[in-house]
User: Fold this.
Amino acid sequence: MSVQKSATRLTVPALRARKGGVPIVSLTAYDVETARLADPHCDLLLVGDSLGMVVYGLPSTLAVTLDMMAAHGAAVVRGSSHAVVAIDMPFASYEQGPAQAFESAARLMAQTGAQAVKLEGGVAMAETVHFLVRRGIPVIGHVGLTPQAVNVLGGFRVQGRSRDGWPAIEADARAVAEAGAFSLVVEGVSEPLARRITGIVDIPTIGIGASAGCDGQILVTEDMLGLTPKAPKFVRRFAEVGSAMNDAFAAYATAVRDRTFPAEEETYAQKDPH
Ligand code: KIV
Assistant:
């Protein structure tokens, strides 16, 4: 299906109003070409700090910096015209308190033109979310499996598999929603918990590894394209782009080695007479 390039961008209030309605379609994007291709199909493009692992090959998201997020965020804004663009606040750029968070978020928004930021955490971040929203910065919350807390969680583990883990995650979701976040990423939780959270909060939940019980879905683009060698159980590979790239690289190498590339039609002729 081909989709026209949109003249006007979706807004944060328009996304907020999608609670319980048409599911929100979201993907990550880190660069201009991915943004350009995904934008017409998506409601929300997230410049996730997952770029640390996907683009830079880091073992976690912890070493991602504000400069990295600003550079990739600006590229995604330049490559898009339809979807809301939100940027992840990287680890250690907001946890000290509301003032640090405001400075970091304002810098990301001013340097990129993005419309929102996302930050991880629940009850502990509610005051910060409230502070940002009251000062004009739309915020997406993120609860459940929060990758920046990988060392506290003891790994990238599904959360809320047994009922005793539910109350804390529900409290996180409620706190972020009540603090004024306009949507909530729910990552790596069991289906019944995702459905409960979606029922509890009055903002749209966007699930990743959190079942169809959310108000929308997000995937890491490289995972769903088949570009990452190993993807978690919850990922559906909608294409095998990695294998298409491998075939293209192999064909190029063969063509260079057997001198069939470049051909005459790929070569500039001399224009003036000899
Ligand atoms: O960093 C990221 O890409 C994310 C999504 C997986 C939600 O936070």
Remarks:
- The two ends are 51 Å apart (CA to CA).
- Residues 194 and 203 are 13 Å apart (CA to CA).
